[in-house]
Amino acid sequence: MGTTVCDVSINTSRVWDCASDISGIDIRKLCIKGPMSKLIQTRYQQLAVTTINVATLTLLREIFSINERGYSGHSAGEYSALYAAGAMDMETLFKAIDKRSIIMQSLAKEKKGVMYVVKKYSHNKLWNIIEYLGLNPFVNICCDNSNNQQVIGGRFEEVKILVNYLLLNHVEVIKLSVNGAWHSELMRDGKGPLRQYLEKLNFTRPKNPIIMNVSALNISNETDIKNQLINQLTDTVKWQDTIKEWAKVGHENFLEIGSKKTLLPLIDDIFPKNNFNKRHASEFI
């Protein structure tokens, strides 16, 4: 994981060094040797994914002159997007994601939760079922990824009720290999500690627009950016609305930065008939 962007230049080495120094974890060893049992834990996964994201971006910027017009990142990826937008420097990025991962891992151990992907179901239809079954606020739509993909999460007992209801109605659900329920009420107790920590960090105005998860709007004020990150712990990742907002303002070129092609297929779900230029970083490095 991440071998194609690990120590391939002085600047990419600097990314891996920074992540390891701040977290106190050997991120190189973690990504290359695992074990997978660690990598699926949010404490380690967030750091690994962020390191690979930033190292990939760094290498792309070294090789090519990229016409960067705006940024978005999904869930923890939003921190990488803020770094790409110039809203924080590298040290601040890894301090922020390190703290976030510690908070979320701690809450996951304390409050047992679970997450499922729900296929071919709209946000509104799914939310109506959650309300009908009386599962709010114990179950949330954690990610509204597209018309064909929602992610639900929350307390184990209530999520099980919803999953059983969906299965009885022949809806496809897939359990996620995560160790907590992100973007749900189970993370509420983390908002205070995260706020206290982020208030100490220096953010700056993004150099280009960044459409953020919670509002699906372009946010440029430093305080508002921090509030969005804090609320993201419990609120829905509005990825579908984010892509629609980019299309609304005329953007048709999308480059996904990361180790896997995860987000690009969602664009075709959101806009089944589109002529967008969709590329992945792996095509260039």
Short description:
The protein is α+β, with helices and mostly antiparallel strands and 285 residues long. It is built from twelve helices and six strands. The chain folds into two domains: 184 residues, Malonyl-Coenzyme A Acyl Carrier Protein, domain 2; 63 residues, 2-Layer Sandwich (Alpha-Beta Plaits), CATH 3.30.70.
Within CATH, the superfamily of the largest domain carries the name: Malonyl-Coenzyme A Acyl Carrier Protein, domain 2
Strand segment tally: 6
CA radius of gyration: 18 Å
Tell the overall outline.
Answer: globular
Uncertain runs are: none
Estimate what percentage of residues fall within beta strands. Answer: 5-15%
Mean pLDDT: 97
**Named CATH architecture of the largest domain:** 3-Layer(aba) Sandwich
Distance from N terminus to C terminus (CA atoms, Å) equals 14 Å
CATH topology of the largest domain: Malonyl-Coenzyme A Acyl Carrier Protein, domain 2
Name of the CATH first level of the largest domain: Alpha Beta
| Approximate helicity band | 40-55%
Structural class: alpha+beta
